[in-house]
Amino acid sequence: METVNFVEKFIIYIEDHLRECIDYDRVLEGMGVEPKSFITIFTSLAGMTPYEYQTRRRMSEIAHELHAGHLRLIDIVKYYGYRDIDSFKRAYFNAFGISPYETERQFDTLDLQERISFEVVPVDRPKYPSRSAYMDSFRLIGFVRRFSVDDYRSGMKYDFLAYLEENDMLNELLRYNDGAVKGIILHERYVDGGMELTVGVSSTLAGPFEETYTESSEFVIFESMGSPPEVSEDIYRYIFRRWRFKEEKDLNCNFSMEVLKSRNDFVSGDAKVQVWQALYQDL
């Protein structure tokens, strides 16, 4: 346990010096630790060397900065110590396979590195309970909006949901919810180079709504309670930053599906939120 504690302290040191060129041998010797042995231990626990960890964490923080959009690219380049924009672009492409300018559109697909912690938790208590289920394609009816990929932001689906809630359209939709999945469904997918957003229900009934069909897929279903925009964002963060690395699953990100269940309204803080994460199937 003492070794794990020291590794965690060294991770804190790296986090405090992410922007710097760390001389690991010198720092460890100054801490009274034999560098070669420690780096071997660190690598076995973290799955990467201290240098690799620092590089991945720095790039992940930069990706968050670019996604937030509060700083200009030149300011980020200077802050993180790159000598010019071109060298930064090359490093960023090597890390993520995209240019910095593509970050906002592809942020949810990036292989980001969270800060490592060795806090001991029961292995059978994941952050979000989940279950696996295969679901054949089913008919989805509801209200549809279409956007260009460049204009679309994930928060727009909850703005649309709130608008429908305010105008009492969700209760009307639920009258047609006789399909296999119960609840309001938020369905996003890429179609013809654009983004199609459907807020609807699973139904076999004819009604005054647009219709589409979901993909047949193996899903992992994650569930929690709370405000849908906040809960769904946190679940996706958990899936992409932790769960998929532990489970080594091949995620299908061509579409997304969230199912909301509530006794009151669907934008409140006590809604049940399910994220249905599709998986690619092994052939």
TrEMBL record:
This is AraC family transcriptional regulator. Keywords: DNA-binding, Transcription, Transcription regulation. The lineage of its organism: Bacteria, Bacillati, Bacillota, Bacilli, Bacillales. It comes from the Bacteria. The keyword DNA-binding applies. One of its GO terms (molecular function) is sequence-specific DNA binding. Residues 8-106 form the HTH araC/xylS-type domain. PANTHER family: RIGHT ORIGIN-BINDING PROTEIN (PTHR47504).
